[in-house]
């Protein structure tokens, strides 16, 4: 039996050890925050219409799991749809800004101007265009998630070293070869960085849309709890929203580490 035959095959784990360590540290940090929050409530004993502890919020979650799960599912669908649309359009727009200088001259200032408009102000406009249903919330989420992808895609494509461009030109590489073999490879880590920003923004955008015209979703739960001065339900919705955002962020982060192995990430 040769040494090659006896050598154990080491498979790359599905979840890198570094990601597990980061997740454990995050759980410890969040647990510490909850403990501090509960202690503040126990010590100060504020009225329930001003502040409740995390124990009251979790009790509300456990008492009505179906209510929060169904509304969380609505918000998650809206956020993911907006994130996918924002990512696709942001990458295409960022590439257009890079490859077409004339487009960049006119379009980039307009994008910056549009991005300065509060997205809450745009939400009623999307309701006029797309109605009170699912679509208007998706487009609010897309509008918020869009801009980071534009900037990161443009920066990523612009970061290709001049030497590599010259090497491709000397070897008579086609435009498609330069795009797929060099420029896109350099842009992918930057695109993933933009996606990690946009995924949390998309969740917030979906909630903003629900604030304006929602009859379901976690944004609607927060508004309803506010009208009833039910802080336990409100904080329970906050906790679910934070859990969704953190989970989606780490999913994108894990995908980046699996799909972009040449990129060095901080431990």
What would you report as the Rg, rounded to the nearest angstrom?
23 Å
Give the domain tally.
2
CATH fold call of the largest domain: MetI-like fold
Q: Note the beta-strand portion.
A: under 5%
Identify the CATH class of the largest domain: Mainly Alpha
Characterize the structure shown.
30% of the residues are buried. By secondary structure, the chain is an all-alpha fold. Helix 4 packs across helix 10. It is built from eleven helices and no strands. The protein has two domains: 16-45; 52-260, MetI-like fold (Orthogonal Bundle). Keywords: Cell membrane, Membrane, Transmembrane, Transmembrane helix, Transport. It is found in: Cell membrane. It is a multi-pass membrane protein. Its main location: membrane.
């Amino acid at each position: 039996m040769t040494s090659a035959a006896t050598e154990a095959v080491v498979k790359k784990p599905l979840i890198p050890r570094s990601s597990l360590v980061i997740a454990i540290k995050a759980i410890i940090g969040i647990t510490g925050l909850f403990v501090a929050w509960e202690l503040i409530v126990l010590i100060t004993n504020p009225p329930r219409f001003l502040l409740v502890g995390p124990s009251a919020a979790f009790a509300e979650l456990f008492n009505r799991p179906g209510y929060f799960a169904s509304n969380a599912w609505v918000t998650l669908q809206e956020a993911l749809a907006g994130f996918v649309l924002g990512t696709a359009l942001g990458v295409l727009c960022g590439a257009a800004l890079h490859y077409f200088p004339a487009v960049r001259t006119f379009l980039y200032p307009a994008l910056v101007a549009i991005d300065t408009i509060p997205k809450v102000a745009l939400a009623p406009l999307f309701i006029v265009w797309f109605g009170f249903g699912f679509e208007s919330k998706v487009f609010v989420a897309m509008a918020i998630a869009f801009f980071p992808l534009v900037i990161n895609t443009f920066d990523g494509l612009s970061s290709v070293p001049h030497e590599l461009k010259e090497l491709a030109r000397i070897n008579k590489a086609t435009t498609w070869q330069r795009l797929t073999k060099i420029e896109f490879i350099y842009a992918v880590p930057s695109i993933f960085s933009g996606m990690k920003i946009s995924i949390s923004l998309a969740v917030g955008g979906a909630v903003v849309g629900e604030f304006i015209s929602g009859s379901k979703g976690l944004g609607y739960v927060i508004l309803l709890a506010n009208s009833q001065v039910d802080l336990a339900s409100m904080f329970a919705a906050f906790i679910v929203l934070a859990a969704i955002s953190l989970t989606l962020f780490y999913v994108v982060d894990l995908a980046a580490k699996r799909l972009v192995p040449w990129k060095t990430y901080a431990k």
